[in-house]
């Protein structure tokens, strides 16, 4: 493939990038939802049909076509899940190479492929170590499924696009500002090469969300005025340090609890809910102010709860709430308020008017009657494969980058106690890469401390004293000035 003319270096230099989510052209439509009332009043679309992307979810499997060979980068639980989703999504697709930092993770994935799909990955196509992704990408695959810990995804995405590979990218795309700019630079390269990029934001391929989105775009709730998004879940898995393992290996095996590896759970997990908000509104965040804390997390350096007020570019607000503490209520869902009504994904996907009357509800039973495949994790691969086989470009990375950055802004506000703006964060030098990253040697573990926002009582007292002295000095100077 001829190398494109876009300079990655020049793009990175200019990437105090305004906006990010470029519009994408859709292919087809899906199941029409049922309405349970209303419809008499004239509604005005927020966006006209055809001006926004709607995936074609009208089939259980991708259309038949050329054979596609995939490589898996990151063989943990999500990597194995993505591998199964890919294989279930189409005929004529296979997996030919595996990569993971650790041999035991790789072997578990290889055994799963053999037992469930009768795919035998030869020994010379099983790659380990931190550079396993290069060997997978260079092994002769057509596409890669990247499901490594989030910190590593920007450099793996970059190498895959440089080598001309279509990519499935698990969310989030990045954990810091450096990763943000790298991911967008790589995304532009993917556009230039017409490579197909689908991200692991599976709600974009979940029929009840897609139909809800279409109803809101059609104007059923009027202009969007605000909302709230929630991921109040339980404690994730924990891998405590084991004697005999290096510092780097202990952290990487417990990556979901380490800030530099996962981005904290507001980025790694709650970005799903923020993504629904940025998708439905089509807006980017301009500032975030929040607080969070750590009550019960048994390992790592992360918080276990966040509460953030995010302001969008047109001035509307969304409340972002997430926690990973057993016994907390609230669930996982989104709510959007409009001038004519509201939408909620809690339990059912329902639209109500301002009086609280249900005027639309997604018909789950109709979907069950019409489709065998209702798993959005598989449907995103169906759509990805259809685009590749049809030669139709798709790139979800820029859109994912907006919600990903909203989560990073919220995290940094909670860590510092300060308002964090889009412009400041996207151009900052925030880089979570360890200076001494190694899978064998020692690392400086003293830097991995739970963030403490604000000032200590002593620091607060000193600041107040300094402010008081400054005011007194100003007051004393006024008579002389007059």
Notes on the structure:
- It is built from 16 helices and 15 strands.
- The chain is of the alpha/beta class and 482 residues long.
- It has a nine-stranded mixed sheet with strand order 14-13-12-11-7-10-9-8-15.
- Helix 11 crosses helix 14 (397-416).
- It is globular.
- The model is unreliable at 1-40 (pLDDT under 50).
In brief:
The chain is of the alpha/beta class and 482 residues long. It is built from 16 helices and 15 strands.
Strand and helix map with partners:
Blueprint: H1 8-13, E1 68-73, H2 77-88, E2 93-100, H3 103-117, E3 126-128, H4 132-137, E4 143-146, H5 153-162, E5 166-169, H6 177-193, E6 197-199, H7 207-217, E7 224-233, H8 247-253, H9 259-262, H10 265-268, H11 271-281, E8 285-293, E9 305-312, E10 317-324, E11 331-338, E12 341-344, E13 350-353, E14 358-361, H12 364-370, H13 376-390, H14 397-416, E15 420-421, H15 422-426, H16 457-481
Parallel strand pairs: 1-2, 1-4, 2-3, 4-5, 5-6, 7-10
Antiparallel strand pairs: 7-11, 8-9, 8-15, 9-10, 11-12, 12-13, 13-14
Compute the gyration radius: what is it?
24 Å
**Percent strand:** 15-25%
Strand segment tally:
15
Overall pLDDT metric: 91
Unreliable residue stretches: 1-40
Task: Output the structural class.
Answer: alpha/beta
Q: Approximately how much helix is present in the residues?
A: 25-40%
Termini separation comes to: 75 Å
Give the helix tally. 16
Largest sheet: 9 strands, mixed
């Amino acid at each position: 493939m001829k190398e494109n003319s876009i300079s990655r270096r020049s793009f990175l230099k200019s990437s105090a990038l305004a906006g990010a989510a470029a519009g994408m052209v859709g292919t087809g439509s899906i199941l029409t939802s049922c309405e349970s009332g209303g419809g008499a009043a004239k509604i005005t679309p927020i966006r006209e049909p055809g001006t926004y992307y709607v995936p074609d979810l009208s089939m259980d499997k991708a259309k038949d076509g050329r054979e596609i060979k995939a490589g898996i980068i990151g063989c943990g639980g999500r990597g194995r899940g993505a591998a199964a989703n890919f294989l279930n999504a189409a005929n004529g697709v296979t997996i030919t190479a595996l990569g993971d930092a650790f041999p035991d993770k790789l072997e578990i994935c290889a055994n799963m492929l053999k037992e469930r799909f009768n795919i035998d990955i030869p020994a010379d196509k099983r790659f380990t170590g931190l550079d396993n992704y290069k060997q997978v990408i260079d092994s002769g695959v057509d596409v890669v499924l990247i499901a490594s810990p989030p910190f590593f995804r920007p450099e793996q995405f970059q190498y895959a696009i440089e080598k001309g590979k279509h990519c499935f990218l698990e969310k989030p795309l990045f954990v810091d500002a450096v990763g943000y700019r790298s991911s967008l630079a790589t995304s532009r390269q993917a556009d230039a090469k017409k490579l197909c990029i689908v991200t692991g934001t599976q709600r974009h391929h979940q029929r009840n969300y897609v139909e809800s989105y279409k109803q809101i775009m059609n104007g059923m709730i009027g202009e969007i005025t605000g909302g709230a998004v929630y991921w109040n879940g339980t404690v994730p898995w924990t891998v405590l340090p084991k004697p005999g393992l290096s510092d780097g290996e202990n952290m990487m095996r417990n990556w979901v609890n380490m800030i530099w590896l996962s981005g904290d759970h507001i980025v790694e997990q709650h970005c799903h809910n923020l993504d629904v908000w940025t998708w439905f509104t089509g807006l980017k965040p301009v500032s975030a102010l929040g607080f969070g804390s750590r009550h019960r997390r048994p390992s790592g350096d992360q918080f276990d709860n966040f509460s953030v007020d995010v302001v969008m570019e047109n001035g509307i607000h969304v409340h972002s709430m997430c926690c990973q503490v057993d016994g907390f209520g609230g669930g996982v869902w989104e709510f959007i308020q409009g001038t004519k009504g509201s939408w909620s994904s809690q339990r059912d996907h329902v639209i109500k008017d301002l009086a609280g009357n249900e005027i639309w509800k997604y018909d789950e039973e109709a979907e069950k009657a019409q489709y065998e495949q209702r798993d959005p994790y598989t449907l995103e691969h169906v759509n990805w494969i259809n685009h590749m086989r049809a030669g139709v470009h798709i790139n979800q990375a820029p859109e994912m980058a907006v919600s990903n950055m909203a989560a990073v802004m919220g995290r940094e506000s909670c860590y510092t106690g300060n308002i964090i703006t889009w412009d400041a964060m996207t151009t900052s030098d925030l880089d979570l890469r360890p200076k001494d990253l190694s899978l064998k040697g020692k690392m400086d573990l003293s830097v991995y401390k739970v963030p403490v926002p604000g000032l200590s009582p002593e620091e607060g007292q000193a600041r107040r004293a300094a402010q008081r002295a400054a005011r007194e000095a100003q007051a004393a100077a006024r008579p002389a000035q007059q």
